[in-house]
Specification:
Low-confidence stretches: none
Structural class: mainly alpha
Protein name: DUF3288 domain-containing protein
Largest sheet: none
Order of helices and strands: HHHH
Mean pLDDT: 88
Number of helices: 4
Strand content: under 5%
Number of strands: 0
Distance between the termini: 29 Å
């Protein structure tokens, strides 16, 4: 069976910067929670970016969350209003 080669995600550099900021947060904002959830979704099952995947777990643990509680929290945040400022409108960055 052939070994799968790790890939580099096209959004890696931008995501790494966001994640580095999340790693320093002690009192995360609603946007921080949303960014964390978005990055977890993006990198779940991705073959590569192992450092990002590992650091996402660190942030979840540092914020004393589970993935399920994070997603529940972000669903509630999105239900009450926009998380991202107007400058981000028109940018779908979920890929």
């Amino acid at each position: 069976m052939a070994e799968t080669k790790d890939q580099r995600h096209p959004q890696y550099t931008k995501d790494r910067q966001i994640l580095n900021e999340l790693l320093t947060q002690t009192k995360p904002s609603n946007r921080d929670f949303a960014e964390l959830a978005r990055l977890i979704i993006r990198y779940k099952g991705f073959v590569g970016a192992r450092d990002i995947q590992s650091d996402l777990i660190k942030v979840v643990n540092n914020w004393q969350l589970t993935e399920e509680s994070l997603f529940s929290k972000t669903r509630a945040i999105h239900a009450i209003g926009k998380v991202y400022m107007a400058q981000d409108e028109g940018q779908d960055d979920w890929a």
